[in-house]
């Protein structure tokens, strides 16, 4: 009987020590975003980075609106205005229409065909740079021209373990990975936050970029600022690992229950 008592007590003691060590062992939280690493420092995190600006590439579709003091002459430089406000409008948020945007398409040579100016090189320029170029060039035809350029084909896809997978149309010229995930309602509890895949189509190749949302290094990732037609895929966790992570918080309760049972048994044996 004493041998049995010693075995029970030793098992309980080992279980208690093991549980305490497991709880005290520092672990990286798999659910919390933007966690610091050992290499992070206050100085490094406070460095200012240059503002991001998307640069146009082949296949982009542009909305270009021109206005000036020559109202009658403006019509020549707004050939798409007859289609009813497509240039100035556009939608934001979830894509609900299959209509193709109407505008200037960037050719394989990186140019657009613009009234009076013929072929205008645009690939590699930012929207602001293109506005300046067109404004300066159109001064030969208009009095005090004003030019507004927007990107019409900026769409992103969010798939996998998110609350609301969908295709989203971006109204502004830039959107971050975290903003896109917010549009999709954030990841589910089954989503792998440490291994999110961004698939990017470029004129030269298809890129596959892995991003860890739980690490602050994601702010330095080339996928932090998304580009048109980027696809975000969130892989699902292994179901067994998910179940294990759910049961782990109840280990102390389980141990306490065993301790209580052992105490009762020992008292009855006296």
From TrEMBL:
Transmembrane segment boundaries: 247-269
Cellular compartment(s): Cell outer membrane
Pfam family, one: SLBB_2
Signal peptide: 1-22
Polysaccharide export protein N-terminal domain residues: 50-151
InterPro entries in the record: Poly_export, Poly_export_N, SLBB_dom
Membrane topology field: Multi-pass membrane protein
Domain SLBB intervals: 155-234
Gene3D superfamilies: Outer membrane lipoprotein wza domain like
GO biological process: monoatomic ion transport
GO cellular component terms, semicolon-separated: cell outer membrane; pore complex
Keywords: Cell outer membrane, Ion transport, Lipoprotein, Membrane, Palmitate, Polysaccharide transport, Porin, Signal, Sugar transport, Transmembrane, Transmembrane beta strand, Transmembrane helix, Transport
Principal subcellular localization: membrane
GO molecular function: polysaccharide transmembrane transporter activity; porin activity
Highest taxon listed in the record's lineage: Bacteria
Family of this protein: Belongs to the BexD/CtrA/VexA family.
Protein name: EPS I polysaccharide export outer membrane protein epsA
Source species: Fibrella aestuarina BUZ 2
Lineage: Bacteria, Pseudomonadati, Bacteroidota, Cytophagia, Cytophagales
């Amino acid at each position: 009987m004493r041998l049995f008592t010693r075995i029970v007590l030793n098992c309980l003691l080992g279980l208690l020590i093991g549980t305490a060590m497991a709880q005290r062992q520092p672990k990286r939280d798999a659910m919390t975003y933007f966690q610091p690493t050992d290499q992070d420092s206050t100085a490094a995190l406070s460095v200012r980075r240059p503002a991001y600006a998307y640069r146009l590439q082949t296949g982009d579709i542009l909305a270009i609106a021109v206005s000036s003091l020559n109202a009658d002459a403006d019509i020549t430089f707004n050939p798409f205005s007859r289609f009813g406000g497509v240039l100035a409008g556009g939608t934001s948020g979830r894509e609900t229409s299959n209509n193709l945007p109407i505008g200037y398409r960037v050719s394989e040579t990186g140019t657009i065909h613009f009234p009076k100016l013929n072929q205008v090189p645009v690939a590699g320029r930012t929207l602001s740079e293109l506005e300046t170029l067109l404004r300066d060039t159109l001064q030969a035809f208009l009095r005090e021209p004003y030019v507004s350029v927007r990107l019409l084909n900026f769409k992103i896809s969010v798939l996998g373990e998110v609350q609301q997978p969908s295709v989203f149309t971006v109204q502004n010229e830039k959107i971050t990975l975290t903003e896109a995930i917010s549009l999709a309602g954030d990841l589910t509890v089954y989503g792998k936050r440490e291994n999110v895949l961004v698939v990017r189509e470029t004129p030269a190749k298809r890129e596959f970029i892995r991003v860890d949302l739980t690490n602050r290094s994601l702010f330095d990732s080339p996928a932090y600022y998304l580009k048109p037609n980027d696809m975000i895929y969130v892989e699902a966790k292994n179901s067994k690992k998910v179940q294990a992570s759910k049961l782990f918080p109840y280990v102390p309760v389980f141990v306490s229950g065993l301790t209580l049972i052992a105490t009762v048994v020992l008292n009855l044996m006296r």
